[in-house]
Structure formats: C-alpha cells, structure tokens
Amino acid sequence: xxxxxxxxxxxxxxxxxxxxxxxxxxxxxxxxxxxxxxxxxxxxxxxxxxxxxxxxxxxxxxxxxxxxxxxxxxxxxxxxxxxxxxxxxxxxxxxxxxxxxxxxxxxxxxxxxxxxxxxxxxxxxxxxxxxxxxxxxxxxxxxxxxxxxxxxxxxxxxxxxxxxxxxxxxxxxxxxxxxxxxxxxxxxxxxxxxxxxxxxxxxxxxxxxxxxxxxxxxxxxxxxxxxxxxxxxxxxxxx
Length: 239
Description:
The protein is α/β, with parallel strands linked by helices. The protein has helices at residues 40-55, 78-89, 106-113, 143-154, 183-202, 206-210, 213-224, and strands at 27-32, 58-61, 92-98, 129-135, 158-159, 164-166. The model is unreliable at 232-239 (pLDDT under 50).
C-alpha cells in the first residue's frame, strides 16, 4: 500500500475549459466477439455501424480473426498495433459479444486484453464513450453486457446508460445479414443515437472529465524527483 507523509497538497476547484467544439464526424470503433462465418455479434455490430453512419459518424469495425492470443513477445504484431491505433483514433466505441457460458467470449476479451490502459503518455480508451451490446442463442440475458460494463469501467471509459441485448439472435436477421424490423432493432437505434449524443457532448471534454487528483499528484512528484532529492512521493518524507 502507498504511504503518504505530511499534509496533502491543496485541492483546487476544477475550472471548466474554454472549448472550440470539434466539427469532424464522431469517430467510432466497433468490436465484436465471434469468429463464426455467420456471427450474430458481427451482424449486430454491422447493423449498428450502418445506423451510426446514417447519424453522421465515421465508423471502423475491427476484424479479430488474425489477432493473436495475448502473450509475451507479440506487442509488435501487426494486428496488435492496428487494434491499438484504432482505439487511440476513436472518440467512442461499441462492444458487442455473444453470451457464452454466462459470460463474454474469449475472442472478445482477447481484444480488450491487448489494449493497455496507457501506451507511454497515450491512453487509448480513457474518456472515450462506450456502448455495450450482446447476442444470445436463447432467452434474453444481460450477463455479457454487465461484464462489458465492468470492463468499460476498468478501461476508464464513459459507458452510456442504454444497452442492447438480442435474444434468439438467429431469428432476428435476414439471410443477407440485415436485421429484421423489430423491437430489438428499435433498441439498437436508441443505443446508437445515445452513443452519438454522448460522444458529441464529451469528446472535447475528455481530458477534463477524466483528470484525476491522484494522478496529478503522482505526476508532480515524479517531475520533482531527482537523484539528489529522492523523497518526494512514497515512503521516506513523501508528500
């Protein structure tokens, strides 16, 4: 456990930044969690992508088929680099996983495992908006979206309130892969509209919204640290 000595630095009141609103289309990255030829999580992701495009977003869907299983020595793999670049490019994300054995699939979790909380000074997920969806082969369930929300919180993302869970997904798509007109599709539209709005509202405030007192304090301590005066942060005579 970290140990602090002395009085903590004063806490300043957050100051709302002056903004010049962005005018480019919101950039949305979409991830799905199945490798099947007829993957319903992919079909749902593609349907949601079409909706986002109609709303005015720039959409990119990541294909996980060639992504290696998370392991040492693979950080420079082309697909790992591509996934990380797309995450850093994005202003919002959509995650969609099948529910398997009451949880998300390994295919989906592997993608998140490859995206670190920080790459140097770049945080590829922090402060980005997130919408979560799942497909089920049986009755409606929320196990997968609940797990996705947990992951989103861990990745420091702004997960929107609404979500989509499509039961008996094999009944909800036409042969050409388009989603049937239904209450399930209406909910997907609801979720994508909400993601679009939340992304517009927060993308220019991302750094402000996720700025943390503890991280500012640690950064200041590291900046002050030097070989002749090492007692600035933890143990000894820290802050």
